[in-house]
TrEMBL record:
Protein name as annotated: DUF2229 domain-containing protein
Highest taxon listed in the record's lineage: Bacteria
Every DUF2229 domain range: 36-259
Span of the signal peptide: none
Family matches, as Pfam families: DUF2229
InterPro entries: CoA_activase_DUF2229, Dehydratase_Activator_Redct
Annotated organism of origin: Hydrogenobacter thermophilus (strain DSM 6534 / IAM 12695 / TK-6)
Lineage, highest ranks first: Bacteria, Pseudomonadati, Aquificota, Aquificia, Aquificales
C-alpha cells in the first residue's frame, strides 16, 4: 500500500514559495507600478529567481513568471521558433517567451547568466553556467525575430543582459546598463536593488536548506531512508524533470534536492571531518579529491552532493536526472555513480528526459527502485554508520 509521507517535500512547491520570503522594499520614490516585467521560468532562473523578485520589487516593478514547462506550452507558443538543435531545457524557452508575450508584459527580461552564486565559491575553480544556458536567450530570440520582430510589433522590450553572479560586484553596472534606456533609474537605485536581491536570494536559500535539515533530522529520529535527487536546478520544473521525485514521495520516501542540502558545520564535520583531519581534503567543501576541472557551477554542486549522499547514512538511494542531448552531464555520469556507490548507496539514472513524459516507464522503474530500497536500506544505513564517528549531539 502506498503511504503519503508526512514530511514536507522539496522541489515541487518551490516556486510557490516565492511569495513567502518577499522582502519589504524600502520606499520606492518613482511610481513604476504600471510596469510589468515578464521573466521566463527557465534554466538558471530556477537558481536565481529570488534575486530577480527582490531586485525588481525594490524598484517598484511587478514581476510575472511564465508557468512550468509543459507540452502544451511548447506546442502552442514554442514550436517553429527553434533555430538550432539543442537539449530540451533550452528549446523549452521558446514556449515560455511565447506565453509571456501572450500575457502582455511590457518588458521581457531574459538574462544571459554567465556565472552562478554557489556555496562552493572559493573551493572550486569557477562557478560558470553551461554555455547553452548562457546563450539560450539570444538563440531563442532569433526564432521570434527572423521573419518579423514579434517583440517590437507588440511594443515589448526584449532585454537580455549578461550577468555574473560569480562576481556580484559587477551586477549593478551590468543591470544599470541594460535597464537605464527603458526605465527611469539611477545607478544608486540599481545598486540598492542588487543588494536587496542578493539578500532575498540568501534568505531563500537559508530557508530551504533549513527545510532540508528538518527532513534529515526526521530521517534520523524515525530511522527512515530518504532519496537524494542529483540533477540541474531546472529539473524541478515539472515539465523538465517530469515529477519523478513525486513518485518516490507517494511510496513514503522523503526527497532531498542536491542544491538545497543542509550546510551546518556540525553536520559537515561529522560527515567529512575525518578526511579533513587526514589531509585528504582541505575542507568539507573540497571536491578536488574526485573532480579536478571544477569550473561548472551546477556540475560542482552535483559532485559535492554525491559525496554528501555517499556519506550520509539515511540517504540510501540517489536518483540522477538528465536531459536528452545534455553534453555537460555526459562526462559526470561515471564519476558520480562511483562516488555514490563507494559506501553502498544505491544509484539510479533517468537519462534522456525530453518533452514527453514517459509516465508508464517511469512508474515501472520507480516500482523496481522502491523494491531495492526496501530490501537494502536497513543494511546501507548500518554500513554507512559504521564508517563514521558517533552521531553528533544535534542528531542524537
Ligand atoms: S547543462 Fe545540459 S541540459 Fe542544461 S542547458 Fe546545458 S546542455 Fe542543456
Amino acid at each position: 500500500m502506498k503511504v503519503i509521507h508526512p514530511v514536507p517535500k522539496l522541489g515541487i512547491n518551490y516556486f510557490i514559495m516565492l511569495g513567502i520570503l518577499k522582502r519589504k522594499g524600502e520606499k520606492v520614490k518613482k511610481d513604476r507600478s504600471g510596469i510589468k516585467v515578464g521573466i521566463p521560468k527557465f534554466l538558471n532562473i530556477w537558481g536565481t529567481h529570488q534575486f530577480w523578485v527582490g531586485f525588481f520589487n525594490h524598484l517598484g516593478i511587478k514581476v510575472v513568471f511564465s508557468s512550468d514547462t509543459s507540452e502544451e506550452q511548447y506546442r502552442q507558443y514554442g514550436k517553429g521558433r527553434i533555430t538550432m538543435d539543442s537539449c530540451f531545457p533550452v528549446k523549452a524557452l521558446a514556449g515560455h517567451i511565447g506565453e509571456l508575450l501572450a500575457k502582455n508584459v511590457d518588458i521581457l527580461f531574459v538574462p544571459m547568466i554567465y556565472s552562478l552564486p554557489s556555496f562552493l565559491r572559493g573551493h572550486v575553480l569557477d562557478t560558470v553556467s553551461c554555455t547553452r544556458v548562457m546563450m539560450a536567450p539570444e538563440n531563442i530570440k532569433a526564432g521570434f525575430t527572423r521573419e518579423k520582430d514579434e517583440f517590437s510589433s507588440r511594443g515589448v522590450r526584449f532585454i537580455s543582459p549578461f550577468v555574473t553572479f560569480g562576481e556580484p560586484e559587477l551586477l549593478p553596472k551590468q543591470l544599470y546598463e541594460a535597464l537605464k534606456e527603458f526605465l527611469d533609474l539611477s545607478y544608486q537605485e540599481v545598486t540598492q536593488a542588487v543588494k536587496h536581491g542578493l539578500r532575498s536570494l540568501e534568505d531563500f536559500d537559508a530557508y530551504i536548506r533549513g527545510k532540508s535539515l528538518e527532513i534529515v533530522k526526521w530521517c534520523v529520529k524515525e530511522n527512515k531512508p530518504a532519496i537524494l535527487v542529483l540533477a540541474r536546478p531546472y529539473h524541478m520544473d515539472t515539465g523538465i524533470g517530469h515529477e519523478i521525485d513525486v513518485e518516490f514521495q507517494t511510496y513514503g520516501y522523503p526527497v532531498l534536492w542536491y542544491n538545497y542540502l543542509p550546510l551546518d558545520d556540525w553536520l559537515l564535520n561529522w560527515l567529512f571531518g575525518q578526511e579533513v583531519k587526514a589531509g585528504i581534503i582541505k575542507s568539507p567543501f573540497d571536491i578536488s579529491d574526485v573532480w579536478t576541472s571544477s569550473y561548472s557551477s551546477n556540475t560542482n554542486e552535483i559532485i559535492w552532493a554525491a559525496k554528501f549522499a555517499c556519506r550520509f547514512p539515511w540517504i540510501t538511494g540517489v536518483i540522477r536526472l538528465s536531459s536528452y542531448e545534455c553534453g555537460m552531464d555526459q562526462p559526470t555520469f561515471t564519476p558520480v555513480q562511483k562516488i555514490v556507490e563507494s559506501r553502498g548507496t544505491l544509484y539510479f539514472k533517468f537519462g534522456e528526459l525530453d518533452e514527453t513524459k514517459p509516465a508508464g516507464s517511469i512508474k515501472i522503474r520507480v516500482e523496481t527502485i522502491v523494491y531495492y530500497l526496501e530490501k537494502y536500506s536497513a543494511d546501507i544505513i548500518n554500513k554507512k554508520l559504521s564508517m563514521l564517528p558517533p552521531l553528533p549531539k544535534e542528531l542524537s
